[in-house]
């Protein structure tokens, strides 16, 4: 597989230190993951590690944070008004907010109802983690010109529009 190919992979992702599985396409009811190679759909190291693999090939690799979701940034904390949140929020909950037109996921790390503050961590939940993947290449096909122009996969396993 190489850039501008549409690739289907089965993968099993776990934290390198604890071996705890964080995501797996082999879970019940899951389909293989489909992506367009070379257009930033995947974390950088994932694509780099499967480049050149043939259908049926299996690879296992470990990605340090810089090739996965980056390091944690302690400036990514913010206090937001308690009044802006729905009722029943708890520490550890994830929310999505729009910042400069871009969706940002954040985690609630502190709630001070009296002060009217909710402390949020906008680091990616996987930031700072070293990740190991077992990957098997299920299929590879050429991307269409339209898929390359849109930078995503159409049809089976991709966008329908
Ligand atoms: Zn499209």
General description of the model:
The chain has 161 residues and is mainly beta. It folds into two domains: 5-69 and 126-150, Chitinase A, domain 3 (Roll); 74-121, Thrombin, subunit H (Beta Barrel), CATH 2.40.10. It has helices spanning 44-50, 145-150; strands at residues 5-15, 21-24, 33-36, 58-63, 77-81, 94-99, 102-112, 117-121, 131-142. The longest helix is centred in the first third of the chain and has 7 residues, at 44-50. It is elongated, with a radius of gyration of 19 Å. The two termini are 26 Å apart. The mean pLDDT is 93. Bound molecules: zinc ion. Residues 150, 152, 154, 159, 161 line the site of zinc ion.
Concise overview:
The protein is mostly beta strands and 161 residues long.
Number of strands: 9
Question: What ligand molecules are bound, each kind once?
Answer: zinc ion
How many domains, in number, for the residues?
A: 2
Low-confidence stretches: none
CATH architecture of the largest domain: Roll
CATH C-level class of the largest domain is Alpha Beta
Structural class of the helices, strands and pairings?
mainly beta
User: Helical stretch count?
Assistant: 2
Radius of gyration: 19 Å
The helical percent reads under 10%
CATH topology of the largest domain: Chitinase A, domain 3
Determine the mean pLDDT.
93
Distance between the termini: 26 Å
Query: In sequence order, what are the helices and strands, one letter per element?
Result: EEEHEEEEEEH
| Shape descriptor | elongated
Strand fraction: 35-45%
**Biggest beta sheet attributes:** 5 strands, antiparallel
């Amino acid at each position: 597989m190489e850039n501008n190919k549409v690739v289907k992979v089965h993968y099993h992702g776990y934290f390198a230190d604890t071996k705890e599985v964080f995501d797996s396409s082999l879970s019940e009811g899951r389909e293989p993951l489909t992506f367009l190679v070379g257009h930033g759909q995947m974390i950088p190291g994932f694509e780099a590690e499967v480049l050149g693999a043939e259908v049926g090939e299996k690879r296992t690799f470990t990605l340090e944070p810089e090739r996965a979701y980056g390091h944690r940034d302690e400036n990514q904390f913010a206090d937001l008004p308690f009044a802006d949140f729905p009722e029943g929020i708890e520490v550890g909950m994830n929310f999505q907010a729009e910042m400069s037109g871009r969706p940002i996921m954040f985690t609630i790390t502190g709630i001070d109802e009296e002060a009217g503050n909710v402390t949020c961590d906008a680091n990616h939940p996987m930031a700072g983690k070293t990740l190991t993947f077992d990957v098997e290449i299920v299929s590879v096909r050429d991307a269409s010109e339209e898929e390359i122009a849109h930078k995503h996969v159409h049809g089976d396993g991709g966008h329908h529009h």
